[in-house]
UniProtKB/TrEMBL annotation:
Source domain of life: Bacteria
Name under which the protein is recorded: tRNA (guanine-N(1)-)-methyltransferase
Catalytic activity: guanosine(37) in tRNA + S-adenosyl-L-methionine = N(1)-methylguanosine(37) in tRNA + S-adenosyl-L-homocysteine + H(+)
Enzyme Commission number: 2.1.1.228
Recorded GO CC terms: cytosol
Subcellular location: Cytoplasm
Annotated function: Specifically methylates guanosine-37 in various tRNAs.
Length: 255
């Protein structure tokens, strides 16, 4: 059974779009994953197939109607076990942990908004997860859906050439990745860090770890704090475990 992406959108022709190329495209051709779309417009109301209406309470923009969104969702006949995700800047930030969770399951059902958004009652009643791909506003959820799908598909078994590249990358252990260098060893007067040419694997690993930490500290103080907290937690647990082992040892001493 292939991993199933279903996308509810007003622009079905945007899919698979760039995901029809390269690694994801080959995996799509090989049946590793499938990409179906459901045209929201087909579930619109009246002669103009209206999918939206003005917001209760007033204000700018239009809101996608709950009955229209629900009819489109029902038409997909998506498996109830597949997470339903609405792409919106109001959502919680998408993380690599989410991506791993989606990729490990049977697939995802994605709802792409346009206009001001989707009626909240529909999202709540149907248990829709609300996810954002970053703190900026796109013109619609489609490009965000493509980002989410790209991140998931590359993790599907057999999609990436080297399994290792999936493990040793930014975010896999909460740090950004170390920098990379390739030939020529001197380019435009700039040299490659000497340690990388040394053949000393332990020294290289140590240098890469230090660079990953430095880069994360400088660029992502949020990730850095979380990483430090986790490290301290692990250390406390290890010390606690050792202390308990000592206690157990003490108890064995006959009094
Ligand atoms: N739709 C519009 N902007 C978005 C964002 N930042 N993330 C996800 N969906 C969006």
């Amino acid at each position: 059974m292939s991993w199933q992406a279903t996308v509810v959108t007003l622009f079905p022709e945007m899919f698979p779009g760039p995901l029809g190329q390269s690694l994801a495209g080959r995996a799509l051709e090989n049946g590793v994953w499938s990409c179906r779309t459901e045209d929201l417009r087909e579930h619109g109301l009246g002669r103009h197939r209206a999918v939206d209406d003005t917001p209760f309470g007033g204000g700018a923009g239009m809101v996608i109607r709950p009955d229209v969104a629900d009819a489109a969702l029902a038409a997909t006949q998506a498996d109830a076990n597949i997470p339903c995700v609405y792409l919106t800047p109001r959502g919680r930030p998408l993380t690599q942990a989410d991506v791993r969770r989606y990729a490990a399951g049977p697939g995802v059902m994605l709802l792409c908004g346009r206009f001001e958004g989707v009626d909240e009652r529909f999202l709540q009643a149907r248990g829709v997860e609300q996810v954002s791909i970053g703190d900026y506003v796109l013109s619609g959820g489609e490009t965000a859906a493509l980002v989410l799908l790209d991140a998931c598909v590359r993790l599907l078994p057999g999609v990436m050439g080297s399994e290792q590249s999936g493990v040793e990358e930014s975010f896999s252990d909460g740090l950004l990745e170390y920098p990379h260098y390739t030939r020529p060893a001197v380019w435009d007067g700039h040299e490659v860090p000497e340690v990388l040419l040394s053949g000393n694997h332990a020294a290289i690993a140590q240098w890469r770890q230090a660079k990953a930490e430095e880069t994360t500290r400088e660029r992502r103080p949020d990730l850095w704090s979380a990483w430090l907290a986790r490290k301290n937690e692990n250390r406390t647990a290890a010390v606690g475990g050792a202390a308990q082992a000592d206690l157990r040892g003490l108890r064995r001493i006959p009094t």
